[in-house]
Structure formats: structure tokens, C-alpha cells
Amino acid sequence: MSLDEMNMISSKNRNSLIELYRVIFALTVVSHHAQYLDARWTDGTAHFVPLLGGNTAVEFFFILSGFFISKAAYQEKDNMDMKKLCTAAWKQDLKKLTAVYPLFFLSYIVAFCTRQLVYRENLFTVIHNFLGSISELALVRWLRFAFLPYEYIGPMWYFSVLLVVVLTLYPIMARLREVFTIWIAPLLILVIYGHSFITTGMVDATYALEAYLRGVAGVSLGNIVYLLAGRYRLRLTERGKYVTAAAEVGVLFCILGLENIYSYDYRDFIEIALYCVLIYLAFASVTPLNHLFDPIAAMFGPFSAALYVSHIAIVLVPWSKLCLPWRYVWMAWMVYTFALAVSILYIRKGFMRLLAKWSIRLRKAILADE
After folding, report:
1. For 120-234, where are the alpha helices, taking DSSP H only?
2. How far is CA 271 from each of CA 55, 175, 219, 249, rounded to the nearest angstrom?
3. What is the spatial distance between Cα 73 and Cα 324, in angstroms, rounded to a whole number?
């Protein structure tokens, strides 16, 4: 496949719809983790939570990341040696790290301070909680490495896994290209999801290995979707655009319907297949939905990332201690998460402006000295 053919699928008209999906599925992840709000989950008597079955929504982000990773890998020069390809993979990781980690760090600090202010814990508990935050902030908690033995695993396990998957798959994708897409990616998907289908849960393995395999399978699916969207773009008539838009809405509602079911069975794999269809339609065609969401698309991407990392508060703040009815605890949790996401975006924006002013002043001072 030529680079021109690959670049056809990067039309910015599709960004609005993809960014909308990011917000929606970030919201399903947040709602899924609402199970930790109430201690009654331990005896199976907790109340119904909307989108409770959003446990596979992370797969959407793995597949979408695989799509963009494949785009970058296929644009690398031919016949690059592995050393240069590994360096390119590190650059991809660094780009992702600088985009997401500041939001995560800010949300973590704000949620941590919220806990101390609301519950007024003693100094010993504050120090204990701070030490318990080290491995999560260092992005190694998903490896079961913890400074304290009972430290939790936060939402950044997905991001940590993605960084490792990029390092391992990006050079192979860039070197083998279509060979990877046609032969290796389907084999990885069949082995990982096939084993998962036979066993209970997504992958029957240790937590770290399960997380990594989920990342490999999702990124491999994204690689295949990228190839399909590049080769088989939909040439739509005016009526066909509306039919495709209706299909996109239908697929989205099917996914959300399945995510109201809390299960680890074949329905999870149906959701994953529908994610692929949704991403393919988003990149292979342009429909009236794109024009509908174009005016507000710019805010979707940063907000979805901020919303995802902000639900770190689910494990930092002991919501059950509010001693309120379930519905009020759930509403307080959702409002707090949205407010935290918005606030860290403004904090980061203000910090970046301040940093820009400092850099300008420093540059002027250096030029004046010269």
C-alpha cells in the first residue's frame, strides 16, 4: 500500500466523530467503575448502574490506538534498520506520554488533596496514602509492583500497557507492513481471543500478562481496521451518506445496549467486533454526523483523556463514607469526575500559558545578554 493511499484515511473531517466516540466510551469506563462506590457490591446486592458492562470499552481505545500507531508505522521509510525503528517507537511513546501524563498527574494530585480535605485524615494516614501512590504515579502498578502490599491499581494500567505494546509491535509493523497485517495480526488475535473465549474473562492469565495480551490483540485489530479503511473507502451517494450515518448510530446503540449487561462472555467479543465496525465506518466515509459535530470536536479529545484519567478518584476518595443513599453517591461521583476533568484541563492550559511566558522572557534575557 502506498503512502498516498494510507494518507487518504486521515481526513480531518472524521476527527469529530472519532473524538465523540472517545468521550462516550470514556464515560462508559467511568460508569463501569462505579461498582466500587458501594460496599454492597461485595455481597451482590448493589443497585443497577447505567453502562455497568463497560469493561470492554478499553478495547475500543486499544483498537483506535492501533489504528493511529499503524498509520505512523506505515509512514516510516522503507528498509529502516531495527535500531532506528526502535527509536521511532520510543518517540511515539514520548508523544503519548507528554500528551496524557500531565492530565493524569494533575487529576491524581487534585483527587488526593480532595480526600485529605474532606476526611481530614491524620498525618500518618496522609503519609501512608502518599507512599501508596508512588507506583501508580510511576506507571508500574499494573506489573503488580507496589510500595505497599495492598495498594490499588488505577486507570493508568491501560496507558502503561499501551506504551509497552508500542515498543514491541511498532518496529515489527513498520518493517513487515502488510505481512504483519495479513498474517501476524490475525494470528495474534485468534490465539489471544480464542483462548479468552474458551476460558473465563478476557484472558486467563496473571494481571500483567492479561493486560499486555489485551493490548496486543486490540492494537492488532486496529492495524487490520487501518488496512481495510485505507483500501476500501466507501464512495457514497447523498442517500448513502444518510444510510451510513444511521448505521453508525445503530452500531453505537448496540454497543451501549450490550454495555448495560455486566458479563464476561461471548457478548464481550461481539462488542469488540462492533468497535471495529464503528471505527471503520468513521474513517472510511464522511456522513452528515461529521458536519454535525465539527463545531465542538476540538474539545472532545482533551476532555475524553481528562475524563478517563479523572476516575482515579474512584479509588482515592472513599465515597461510601458519605453515608448517603446510593443514587446520591453515584450522582456525586459522576459530577465530581466531570468537574475534575474540566478543572485539570483549565489548570493545564493555564500552566502551559505560564510556561510559554517564562520561555519568552528567558529568550529575551538571553538575546539581551548577547
Report:
1. 123-131, 134-137, 157-176, 178-179, 185-198, 207-231
2. 10, 31, 16, 14
3. 51
Instruction: Give me the pLDDT at residue 117, please.
Output: 75
DSSP 250-317: HHHHHHHHHTTS---SHHHHHHHHHHHHHHHHHHH---HHHHHHGGGHHHHHHHHHHHHHHTTHHHHS
User: Phi and psi for 266 in degrees, rounded to 5?
Assistant: -60, -25
pLDDT computed for residue 13 by the predictor: 43
User: CA-CA distance, 204 to 195, in Å (whole number)?
Assistant: 8
Residue 350's identity, in one-letter code, is G
User: What does pLDDT average to over the chain?
Assistant: 79
Say which DSSP state 111 is in.
H
Each residue's pLDDT tens digit, 288-344: 888 888 877 767 777 888 888 877 666 566 665 666 666 677 777 778 788 888 888
Percent helix / strand / coil, the chain, rounded to 5: 80, 0, 20
* 47-95 confidence digits (pLDDT tens): 556 666 677 888 999 999 999 999 999 998 887 888 889 999 999 998 8
Could you give the CA distance from residue 24 to residue 299 in angstroms, rounded to a whole number? 13
φ, ψ (nearest 5 deg) of residue 46: -70, 160
Contact predicate 296/143, CB 8 Å: no
Average pLDDT over residues 96-100: 86
C-alpha distances in Å from residue 103, one per residue of 95, 143, 181, 230, 358: 14, 22, 33, 32, 21
Give the residue among 317, 337, 217 at the shortest CA–CA distance from 275: 217
CB 29 within 8 A of CB 334: no
